[in-house]
Amino acid sequence: MIGIVDYNMGNLASVINAFLKVGVDAKLESDPSKLNDYDKLILPGVGAYGDAMAHLQENGMDKAVIDFAATGKPLLGICLGMQLLFDSSDEFGATKGLGLIPGKVVAFDESKFDHPLKVPHMGWNELFQVSSEQVAVSNELFQGLPDDFYLYFVHSFHAVCNDKYAIGKTHYGYEFVSAVQNGNIYGIQPHPEKSHENGLKIIENFSKL
Predict the structure, then answer these.
(1) I need a surface site. Which of 55, 66, 177, 204 has the fewest CB within 10 A?
(2) What is the pLDDT averaged over residues 154-170?
(3) Considering the entire predicted model, what is its pTM?
(4) Which of 161, 25, 167 has its CA nearest to residue 99?
């Protein structure tokens, strides 16, 4: 069974529907004590980093997610959920994250853009797979997808981390990390649940890990 962490910070209905479309049951879970009952876990999220961490901390869900990650079972962070996996974020001042992937989350630096662009980064853009030290041959999350494919993005901040954790990158003004893996912990910046066939393939792949 796949659990979806319910902490009042995600478009949960669309995530559940994405799993249903690939024939997989997923259940919302708001009780931290029950997270380890699941085989796999999704950490969704939309909104502000600080608010999300505060919601996770209210009932100990932050520690429960960290404990789940320590079991070795697959964990996938989506959009803000991916950002929460990192050590910290600069959004509205420094905020400590879950610390499951070394790195931090920063605002798009518009001074580095190769041409003027609007922030937030919103709409369809290309994710291109990259080989990391941990995933030398192929990325399990992207099995059956081409080396470069389009997904739907909505964000003003992005992760900065060592390339050994990067399994996908995207260009918006400059290149940034858009998908990561640290052992059993996965993160993806775009919304697979809003990305039609390509996104559903990622959801299906995660369900098979």
Answers:
(1) 66
(2) 96
(3) 0.95
(4) 161
